[in-house]
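User: hey, got a sec? need ABC-2 type transporter transmembrane domain-containing protein folded
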Amino acid sequence: MVENPQYLYSFLTIGSFIVPVIVLVLVLFAAQLIATSIAIEKEEKMFETLLSLPISRMSVIGAKLFVSILISSVYMVMYGLMMFGFLFGQVLEALSPSEEIAPAYTSTISIVMSGDVLFYMILNVVGLALFMVSIALLLSLFAEDVRTAQTLIGNTIAPTIILVYTPMFIDVSSLSARIVLSLVPIASTVFLPKLAIVQDHGALAMAALSNIVYGVALFIAIRRIVNSEAIFTLKLARRKRRET
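Assistant: Yep! Here you go:
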């Protein structure tokens, strides 16, 4: 339990401002990582060559997706926790006397970082990485160069700013609001600190699983596109329109 409710309130207030910024930066990193990788290979004609080899196309896409998700997840978990811990510590230190910081900070963090809550947080971040990498991969399949891929990613990621800051204005006391927001991708990740404070394990699990479900659904769509000739026909159609 937190002895001083002021620290709990400070945690929620500070987290509402810091977590959206961290999530937005990490989402941009995960999306740009896979999009740039695919776009460079398409510029060098390596991607088409790999898809033309006598091996499963999904083996190629799956390997790229797995590596990108792994790198993005590690980056998001490691740097996300480091950035949040550092920024929260600095702000809390500025608001409180130095001799009271250590026990209050440790007590507040221990509530959020309990074993079950930490597991759901990591699972949610992995699901978010899968979802964002799948979106970036889907868009990069139809981009012919790095500039086009980055433009597509930028236009797609920009609206996510609304999703990132939506949880700041949601009342956590409403069960229906927690359930609905837990099903919204990206917003559910930003909502994690509030869900952790109220110890709503059901909403935490729902938020984590929803990201994974959305990511798997996008992966199925990518699989259908890759196994067809849609990638090559769309690119040929663009070239024909340009020539005419």
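Quick note: Residues 5-43 form the longest helix (39 residues). Let me know if you need anything else on ABC-2 type transporter transmembrane domain-containing protein.
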